[in-house]
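Weekly structure sync, notes
Attendees: PL, DS, HV (note-taker this week)

Item 1: N-acetyltransferase domain-containing protein
DS walked through the input record. Source organism listed as Streptomyces albospinus. Sequence as pasted into the shared doc:
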Amino acid sequence: MEMTWRRVEEQDFPLLRMWLQQPHVKRWWNHETTAEAVARDFGPAARGEEPSEDLLAFLDGRPVGLVQRSRLRDYPEYLAELAVIVPVPDDAMTIDYLIGDPRQTGQGIGTAVIHSAIARTWAEHPAAACVLVPVVAANRPSWRALERAGLRRVGVGNLEPDNPVDDRTHYLYRIDRPGTGG
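Item 1 (cont.): predicted structure, written out as tokens:
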């Protein structure tokens, strides 16, 4: 099983839109799925106008998921929210992720995507001290995938959920750059 990656491009928006419409994604991402909304929300990163990176994950050449990766310092308000719950190193990064096809969930693909995204983070962002990931407490499959990918729960706190039906309780997971002793 080979995992490869590339930046999201505007030609990928129909695929992202389809994934965002899937019930298992819609439940946790709660994202508008019109073509205009997808272009509005993913266009700036695709064009390099936003400091975050939207990355497509491919398994054996087929697109399976999306990872959004960013330096927390590029989003000071979000960093401040997290810093109320846990200490956030200066060069901390964060990811968000989804597996698009419901038939590919529950097979360890999410864990593989997270593990691969973190390995790429260490290689592509040499200053990154750690990856810190908040996940709504009710999303057990997501936080279990983080645990299987080697992240550890370091905090519990209240954050605004992506979906208003969810409680504000979030778990914060962290993995430190290998060899840093963090």
